[in-house]
Amino acid sequence: MDVEELTSEEELRELLGEPAAAALRKERPALHEFDRQWLASSPFCLIATSGPDGSCDVSPKGDPPGFTLVLDDITIALPERPGNKRADGFRNILANPHVGLIYFVPGRGDTLRINGRARLVRKAPFFDDMVVKGHRPVLALVVEIEEIFHHCAKAFMRSKLWRPETWQPESVPPRPVIARTLERPEDSLEELERYYGPDYAAKLYG
Q1: Buried b (16+ CB within 10 A) or exposed e, 32-71
Q2: Does residue 178 come out as left (phi exceeding 0), alpha (psi in the -120 to 50 range) or beta?
Q3: Is 56 strand, coil or helix?
Q4: Per-residue pLDDT tens for 56-107?
Q5: Coil, strand or helix: which one is 111?
Q6: What is the DSSP letter of 28?
Q7: Beta-strand (E) ranges in the chain?
Q8: What is the C-alpha separation between 169 and 174, in angstroms, rounded?
Q9: Which of 53, 74, 118, 183 is deepest in the core (most CB within 10 A)?
Q10: Is 89 in a helix, a strand, or coil?
């Protein structure tokens, strides 16, 4: 197979060119009022972390819009909800605090990107503001912002992500089939269909 690999930043810049001045200027070290409005409207983000050996993880986080609390101009906090307890990203943070986050607003193609340093907190007064359906988080991810900027919509426009007429959820096997094939072969398909059925939503906060 004829493959040409890039091995230096000089080669990369020769191929892609230099970023426009506006792309470089948009990086900021603190929250703007528009950023606060974005966080108040966003129900979902992705958090990227890496371990000391360079291994990486990207974890989704979602809750009602505004789930990310703004503590001050350079600090935000995200609640941790019940999950599979793998804690891959959290284990990475304990060894390497650098994180990258992308916040989405449904229907919008642009996104908000935040890079900074994170720490895990299990007790703080702001936990009272993170209660959802009676559930108080057992811990929160606190991020000290080092860099924040808005990202353009080209990837969303190319992918047509928010256009329902392009959605094909039936193009891949349903979650119970994936779980039985790859993760839980000891369970029957009927058991997994019940597990991921209508009652699944009742387990989101406890």
Answers
A1: eeebeebbeebbebebbbbbeeeeebebebebeeebbbee
A2: alpha
A3: strand
A4: 999 999 999 999 999 999 999 999 998 889 999 999 999 999 999 999 999 9
A5: strand
A6: B
A7: 44-50, 56-62, 69-72, 75-79, 98-104, 111-121, 140-151
A8: 8
A9: 118
A10: helix
CA distances from 174 to 96, 113, 169, 170, 177 (A): 35, 31, 8, 7, 6
CB 47 within 8 A of CB 61: yes
Which residue's structure tokens are 């108080």? 136
Question: Two tokens at 94?
Answer: 């304990």
> Tokens 């989704």 map to which residue?
60
φ, ψ for residue 128 (rounded to 5)? Answer: -60, -25
* Separation CA 13–CA 35 (nearest Å): 30
Quick one: pLDDT at residue 178?
A: 98
